[in-house]
Amino acid sequence: MSVKVRFAPSPTGKLHVGNVRTALVNWMFAKGQGGSFVLRIDDTDLARSTAEFEQGIEDDLTWLGMLWDERYNQSKRFDRYEEAAARLKASGRLYPAYETGEELDRRRKVQLARGLPPIYDRAALSLTDEDKAAFEAEGRKPHWRFKLEGKRVAWEDLARGHAEVDTASMSDPVLIREDGLFLYTLPSVVDDIDMGITHVIRGEDHVTNTGAQIEIFEALGGPTPGFAHMPLLVGEDGSALSKRLGSLSISEMRDLGYEPIAITSHLGRIGTSDPLEVGASVEALGESFAFTKMGRSPARYDTADLDRLNAQALHAMDYATAQPRLEALGVDLGEAFWAVVRPNLQKFADVVELAKIVRGPVTPVVEDAAFAAAALELLPETIDETAWSAWTTAIKDKTGAKGKALFMPLRLILTGQPHGPDMAAIVPLIGRERMIQRLKGETA
User: Fold this and answer.
1) Which ranges belong to the motif 'KMSKS' region (predicted)?
2) Which of 31, 69, 97, 125 has a CB 3.0–4.6 Å from the CB of 286, allowing a cystine?
3) Which candidate, 425, 313, 408, places its Cα nearest to that of 368?
């Protein structure tokens, strides 16, 4: 059986780390199995869905390297959902209910007071045609509930192992609202059947829903897919993911300078037994993915790990990959420059400041004029890859300075910064003329 999965985001907002992790695990599982990844836009809520957010979803997935094999809009499939609803109504599995939200809330409170589970009591099943007509005359419109069989529904979960849900302990789920809007469940099941989805992969907060959905699959006569319910994301301390991080959109992360491979490596490997290192590519992440590597504990989302992976990705980036981006920033100073500065990058944009070390302007920090004068006097005529070692040895012999007292003043004079690229590698790029100017205390 060829694997086929789907990611079904709603175009009512931007993609954030939580739903991108769901998309990524689906994508990795499918690609690792040589299968297909379906992008299905859940835009049944026409009032809240926008073309802008829909385009943003496509842009984010493309930027992350998660290209889809098939693409659908649920808003173009209402006829299929109507057909499915009609079949369920005809079989008695989808029934109208007229209670208001306030009435249902009062019933739940009474049930709780009596020590009963607060589930729907199926009072609507006892309504006569006259009762329904009376409600309609009042202006009430029905919402439509799916009648559960009330049984133990079991499946072998790829992420959790054997799983069971007792649908007798659940309320009959509402599939269609009073205003006629289809809620997520029915369109999702219909689409999974029509599109041949083999596996539904999502967060463990959907485990209970799966019991009801399996009953809907069965009621519609469709094949039931396999399921995987993965642990949710939590913060670095194990607490609920903060709103600041949990709602961080991929577009914002892109603007903050994070590399796509750092994001996918982070989200794809946290909570697994794989080392938290940058993958060679998102395709390589898929090839190494397995649910057997996924732990049962919540996955800890730590921005310090993401920052480390982002730096790791930049440190491994070759010049051919970096060159177009360097050119776009106006700092393409050649392959040698890139090789020298990339070990110092946390974000790609950091390269702009590092380029100033080579081409200026740098305002030298001269703390000891006599030391600077001695260094200038001993400056070699040729500044190549051997110059730094010979020059610092000569300065040490003349001034007696060594260690930090030798190297830090020279770094401050030549770069204006206390930290930065390897000096032996950067001075040939700075060049003798600029070195002379800076040793004299001149901005250059």
Assistant:
1) 240-244
2) 31
3) 408
